[in-house]
User: Fold this.
Amino acid sequence: MKRWSRDDIVGAAFTDSASTSHAPIGSYYTDPAVHALELDCVFGHEWNYVGHASEVAEAGAYLVRTIGRESVFVIRDSDDEIRAFYNVCQHRGHQLLDGRGCTNVVVCPYHAWSYALDGALKGAPKMREVPGFDRSDVALAPVRLDVVAGFLFVNLDDAAPPLAEMAPRFEPILRSMVAEPEQLQPVKTKAFDIAANWKIVTENFLEAYHVEFSGPAHRGLVRIIDTATYEFDIDGRTIEYRARGGEPGTLPYDSNPDDAFVDAPGPPFHQVFLFPHMTFSVFPGTNMLFVFNMAPNGVDRCAEEITYFSLDPDLSEPSATAEDFVSEQLNAEDIALVEAVQRGVASAGYRPGRLMVDAEQRAGWGEQFVHHFNTLNLAALERQAP
Ligand code: FES
Ligand SMILES: [Fe+2]
Assistant:
């Protein structure tokens, strides 16, 4: 198998320092071989977002996710424990479940082998007539699951350290965004099929350099925060963004200060990115926390899902306008941007430009976030490359 050098992956002009670096080369976003390496080395060894425990609230409730090359499902068993399994029958390999739902028993659609909620084989048609067949020898293949502040993550690497070790800042940040994250309930999920590499979508999410120039919803985004109070922390696998809210009445949605997670210690605008593909956000004057989950679907497509969670059973009226602003207005502008970038980086005429970063790498508008994200990705690719 080809041994990749750093220059093969991102190009020599992507340097160690954000202050001198150019963007990665076009093939980083378009080469199926780089994508294959990422599926193995990044998605196969990092913690991947699945959802919140409240999305599998009752015994038998399940949720299927694509994690890198694998289909995986989480399911709550009859002892209230949430488990994760590879979504594959241990007979001849048919996939077991699709989407989300609730079941007492997992039955394979092919020959009807049935599995208990803890993964043990319950029965197989005609099993008593097959000499020496012992159903207790058969169980679904488990996947590592970590529950952090009510959110579920899986890791395909059995040797990976727990999420709290790989990203120690994540849980404290999340707990300052919402006081009791375990109590969050999903209120809405929106899915988008985007014709861009997952890294282009992630980079666009991380940097604010484009925000003033990219359409009316983006100009509205500037007003949701008091820019003088904007701060960020880049720390390993997490990037935290914080600010006070913008002037009430000027926000691009109907905010209501009473709707905020009032007992949360953090500021009204608060986001945390968790490598490789997820962002948790709270916007001022809303009673919702929303998660962007970006899962690759081929080298030039990704499945983006935004799930809105609240401590209340429904979004308040003002928060519903914020949801519409994020999902429909802002996201429509961002999708058009990233799809145009995907087409552009595939061009023979693309020569990667300088990342725009101030000398101290402290300006909120800077592209140091893009550099940091790709440094993490590159480290994963270099560390794991065979
Ligand atoms: S493949 Fe599942 S029962 Fe045969
Ligand atoms: Fe944007």
Remarks:
- The mean pLDDT is 95.
- Residues 317-345 form the longest helix (29 residues).
